[in-house]
Amino acid sequence: xGKKVVVGMSGGVDSSVAALLLKEQGYEVIGVTMQxxxxxxxxxxxxxxGAVSWQKGxxxxxxxxxxxxSPARPEGSCCGLSAVEDAxxxxxxxxxxxxxxxxxxxxxxxxxxYFVGEYLRGRTPNPCIACNRYVKxxxxxxxSLEIGADYIATGHYAKTRRLPNGRYVVxxxxxxxxxxxxxxxxxxxxxxxxxxxxxxxxxxEQIREMASQAGxxxxxxxxSQEICFVPDKDYAGFIxxxxxxxVPGPGEFVDARGQILGTHKGITHYTVGQRRGLDLxxxxxxxxxxxxxxxxxxxxxxxxxxxxxEVLCSQVNFMAVEGLQGPLPVKAKIRYNHQGEYGVIxxxxxxxxxxxxQRPVRAATPGQAIVFYENDYVLGGGIIEPGKE
Length: 389
Hints:
The protein has about 400 residues and is an alpha/beta fold. It is built from 7 helices and 17 strands. About 10% of the residues have low confidence.
């Protein structure tokens, strides 16, 4: 019997083919879908009546149990009801055991509460990074080890690699178009040492072709794009419901000198670099350059005001090295779809790292991640902090 691996199955083609590939490679594969959906009607994340239990179904699948009156879940999200049904069908097709694990508490604490809290602080979080670190890896790995698994696996377009210095890193996939290393920078050495990501060796087209040839029912299923717990993309509305009574109301639009220009709808509606939806009759295009939560102000300026050569970050996680021994040249991305820019990173004291770019970067947004690359792998990364005014 090969080593045991728990595959996080989202009901999509990528994680389904990950399970297929690992089974073909001789692993003992167990499929798991993480139940994370909350009370979507209230947005509060309260516990659903009738959790999905950890039970084996009559055909090797999960025995799903729901209480009466369970609220609606996002059908098309990565962990919604359709994901469970699609993943179950794939597991049955592959003849592997399949379970649904309850991670609602972990998801609410580490993802939803974090997401809401950051917006209330005038920052723009990346909930997928938090979900990867604390739910898809930390929580899933812990439970997987409890049932005797050696590894966990996902359908991410990335690869794991062990460097000559013994440290594990996340490396680029073979396809730049789908590369997902940015969202994985925060994984620990222990997590990486027990992670398999077989999809990173292939392009999306190859993955779909393998799914078709294997007869997987999700071979042509569309990719999920939105944040899973905000399927309508109305972030501000979600925050209003989730943090009722805590959300600051309208405030002032101001320029860098503090001159009042108009009234904004509330800081949770804005992010650094934003142009649309400001509704300011300025006679020229203006952009959000800063959010001041304590004053309930949104600062606007010209496009050139959104550029900077220097970015400060906190909560730094190093992968390729234990820490910085001095200034180090890197290529850094300040958001998921950023092409990256070359610069030098160095310690800035109190656990902070500063990146000085060769060319200015646009809209370095507090709360987002800055990820450092060396060659084709992740050196490390951190959370962008506000610059000096």
